[in-house]
Amino acid sequence: MSQSARAYASDSQDRRESQTQLGIERRNIANFVMNSIGECAYEWDIDSDRLHWSEGTEQLLCLDSVDQVASSRVFNSLMLPTAETSRNDAIMSSKEEDEGRGVAYRLQYALSADALNTSSDIWVEDSGRWYAGSDGVPNRAHGILRLINERRSQDERLNRLSRCDPLTGLYNRAHLNLCLEEVFNEINQSGEPACFLVVGLEHFDLINSVYGYEAGDAVISEVAKRMQENLRDRDIIGRFSGAKIGMILPECDDRGMLVAGYRILNLLRENVVTTAKGPIAVSVSVGGVLMPQHARDSKQVFMAAHQALNESRRARDASIVAYQPDPKQELEKQRAAHMAEKIISALKERRIHLAWQPVVDAKTKEVIFHEALIRLESKEGEALVAGEFVDVAQRLGLVRLVDHHALDLAMETLNQAPTAVFSLNVSFETACDPEWLSKLAHCVMNRQDIAERLIIEVTESYAADSLEEAKQFINAVRDLGCRVALDDFGAGYTSFRNLKSLPFDIIKVDGQFVDNLKSSTENQKFIKALVDLASLFDAQTVVEWVEDDITTDLLREWGVDYLQGFKFGKPQRELPWPTEEKSAKQQIGKRAS
Asked: Against a cut of 0.90, is the pTM above it?
């Protein structure tokens, strides 16, 4: 061999060695990267059942040697018995065909801590592609195992949050409802009765206001803990709502329900709850219902138990009240159920609409704004006013849907009619709903002029019962640029302090004070005092139900700002303002003429 040939051969050998070394380095880098992010690769010869793994697999899967997973059969033995499927099952049962590019697969399972001699199971995501032989049957696969313990923990945490109350750790009401459905299935199969109890903490609002919300949270958490520690094995406990805890007692008759109820009463009143603000005595009421004798689904259970709880509270003798059907109440329930069906179908078919009643300046009689009044149109064409269906909607938890629909209609009107100015009522339940407030904020952000043309009305009962929540809601609405009105002021509530605590722009006096105003000295004094008081807080006043000239003149003389009633117009469905579409047509008509 010539010297030049030997030199060429030597160079070729050097290049091959260099390329081999480069390949090794690249493979090492790839293995290092995969291991650092919790991954390893494998290749599976399905016919021989041999598994070939990337370097570092034994460290990643906590194995003594990679030989422990040298075959798919051995690897599968490491999986938890509860695994829904294995890689073998996923590939061999696949109905897809390999058209030359392989078929993708992805699954999750856990490797047993006992099999691996680790402190906890190892969750992995197994993804790859399988390839078929000439007969179309899978004969090889390659893929990647990715450790997902952290993601699995996050999923489990989110799953727990979806089922449990974050404060007490008990099931939430939604999951309690699912548990009730399972219990009813068991009742239908076994015939054994079951019971449901609602335990309500008394004076909970007072605890929050006197000791603070942290102390209130501590009380309900401790109550939940004590109750949970005294359950039977099959009993189920959850946070029913607010300061109420629900308990499902399977295989329990009416006598057992009473025994359980009194056991809870004795358990909770024996010791005070120690909080950072000092010891707090706990007082509770208990209501229960027997299933399926007095309730055959979760909806009936919740209603009956809540009714029994209210009766227990009225009794005021630390007793448990078991629900007993009342013919009159059952008739009322049937009517409520019928009305609920009307409400739901009207929402689906968009038969709930707004009617507009003017509110005028007391001096000039000029229309200042309108009130948007909710109306339900029956399938027969009958229009139901709010008083005929809103109370039922509140009792059955449907008022939120009604209020959201009303807000949608209001936003649609404000967008269509640039000169529209009106007030819109919102219920207590919806005022506590962040989704409603978020929807309002979204609409205001999209069109800035909407806020200054919208007034949100809240009832005095809401302001009186939930002062702090009302303050937060009112401030949030005003921050968006809307005005806030206090509706039905004086309707059975002594709450002048609310005018000082809450920043209302408008105060609407309940119409009952207009009745026989000329001869009622008490009503006259009330309205005069309210006008004087409102002026101290820079709030304007509206008096409702005005129907005659005498009442109009008296109210104007006393300084009432605005008047509302049949004297100035009945609620009308037709929009009292021109819409952009109507204005455009009028302009086209003028140009054409």
From this structure: no
